[in-house]
């Protein structure tokens, strides 16, 4: 069995797909994307074709190391996202070849299902109490929300109070034991992050996410000293080497590698094992599409430290199309009592709606995140 075709496709709202086809007719799908840089990542996949065509797709470790190590320059968001999509597609093929879900090829599952959470609010969150209660009524046991809008390095307590009011309203609406994750989104800098984290303690959040950017990962330990809330981060890290440095800081409780950014199934499985040795939990980042989510669940199935999975159904980014539009077996993403079941079909467990992918590929989407500025005109973190 050899790789005969490597195809790339755009798909709204902001996704990129990789299709690998073998000479005996097996097809594997991956999701390769950096949000806002779709053209760049898919062009990178195209550049890698020469390393793939004619190769045995079952030799995933060898292919992964060729893509990563054979070039002089390595790592970073573009290269690792391209590798991620290819890697997912290779695992999809391998599972289909051996007629089994991917997780069975990685030692089998250590759980029967994985808890999931749902997003509420938007970039500038509002009506969050109502939204959280709707998610609870729909069966979810946890939600995540953006904490704040623009926040300068030193900012006003008025903005802090707005965050506290929103979180208080959610806690009142959903009760004491419902999970509330609060994403600082890297918008907050250390001086204000310490204040905000400490004041959020009374609402017993499930975790706070990206209280500062991983560019300042050495500061997580100081924020941890300021509060007793689990700290999550990692969506903007791209390899086991990035996560090694993060874990060595001792300031993080939950890592959030993205299966479409951090080297795919092959690399994230290794990252998760590293985190387990530090007694750190795994909650893969996935505000993306159906293939990325399928890859996440395959890894979740095999990792003892996985405790919850992000998913993007209903997220504010998803315009024109959602996760379920791109797959035919929509029942695979039926959540029951806040949990996703493990897929039973071969490979990644999803049947991609190739007709819709081809239709969407006629137009390359141009999704970009908004550019925010502070009142004084300076650029704000989004």
TrEMBL record:
Which N-terminal residues, if any, form the signal peptide? none
Choose any GO biological process term that the UniProt entry carries and state it.
Answer: D-galactonate catabolic process
* Gene3D superfamilies cross-referenced by the UniProt entry: Enolase-like C-terminal domain (3.20.20.120), Enolase-like, N-terminal domain (3.30.390.10)
Q: Which UniProt keywords apply?
A: Lyase, Magnesium, Metal-binding
Query: What's the superkingdom here?
Result: Bacteria
Which GO molecular function, any one, fits this protein according to its record? metal ion binding
- Family annotation (SUPFAM superfamilies): Enolase C-terminal domain-like, Enolase N-terminal domain-like
PROSITE patterns according to UniProt: MR_MLE_1, MR_MLE_2
**Residue span(s) of domain Mandelate racemase/muconate lactonizing enzyme C-terminal:** 125-230
SMART domains of this UniProt entry? MR_MLE
Q: Which InterPro entries match?
A: DgoD-like, Enolase-like_C_sf, Enolase-like_N, Enolase_C-like, Galactonate_deHydtase, Mandel_Rmase/mucon_lact_enz_CS, Mandelate_racemase_C, Mandelate_racemase_N_dom
Would I find Ligase among this entry's keywords? no
**PANTHER family (UniProt xref):** D-GALACTONATE DEHYDRATASE, D-GALACTONATE DEHYDRATASE-RELATED
State the protein's name. Galactonate dehydratase
Species source reads Eisenbergiella tayi
């Amino acid at each position: 069995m050899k790789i005969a075709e490597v195809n790339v496709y755009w798909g709204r709202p902001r996704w990129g797909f990789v299709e690998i086809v073998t000479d005996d007719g097996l097809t594997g799908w991956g999701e390769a994307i950096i949000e806002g840089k779709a053209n760049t990542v898919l062009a990178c996949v195209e550049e890698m074709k020469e390393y793939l065509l004619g190769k045995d797709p079952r030799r995933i470790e060898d292919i992964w190391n060729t893509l990563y190590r054979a070039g002089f320059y390595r790592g970073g968001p573009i290269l690792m996202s391209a590798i991620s999509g290819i890697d997912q597609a290779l695992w999809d093929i391998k599972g289909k070849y051996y007629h089994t879900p991917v997780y069975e090829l990685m030692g089998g599952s250590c759980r029967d299902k994985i808890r999931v959470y749902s997003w509420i609010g938007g970039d500038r969150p509002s009506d969050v109490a109502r939204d959280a209660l709707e998610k609870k009524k729909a069966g979810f046991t946890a939600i995540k929300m953006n904490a704040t809008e623009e926040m300068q390095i030193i900012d006003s307590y008025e903005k802090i109070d707005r965050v506290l009011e929103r979180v208080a309203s959610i806690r009142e609406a959903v009760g004491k034991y419902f999970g509330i994750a609060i994403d600082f989104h890297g918008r907050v800098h250390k001086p204000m992050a310490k204040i905000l984290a400490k004041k959020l303690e009374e609402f017993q959040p499930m975790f706070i996410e990206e209280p500062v950017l991983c560019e300042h990962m050495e500061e997580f330990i100081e924020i941890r000293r300021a509060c007793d809330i689990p700290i999550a981060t990692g969506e903007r890290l791209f390899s086991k080497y990035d996560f090694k440095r993060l874990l060595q800081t001792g300031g993080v409780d939950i890592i959030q590698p993205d299966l479409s950014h951090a080297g795919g199934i092959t690399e994230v499985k290794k990252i998760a094992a590293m985190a387990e040795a530090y007694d750190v939990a795994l909650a893969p980042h996935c505000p993306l599409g159906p293939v990325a989510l399928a890859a996440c669940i395959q890894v979740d199935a095999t990792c003892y430290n996985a405790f919850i999975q992000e998913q993007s159904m209903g997220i504010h980014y998803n315009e024109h199309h959602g996760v379920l539009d791109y797959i035919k077996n929509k029942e695979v993403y039926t959540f029951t009592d806040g949990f996703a079941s493990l897929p039973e079909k071969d490979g990644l467990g999803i049947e991609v709606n190739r007709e819709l992918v081809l239709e969407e590929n006629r137009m390359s989407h141009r999704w970009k995140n908004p550019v925010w500025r502070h009142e004084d005109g300076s650029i704000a973190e989004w």
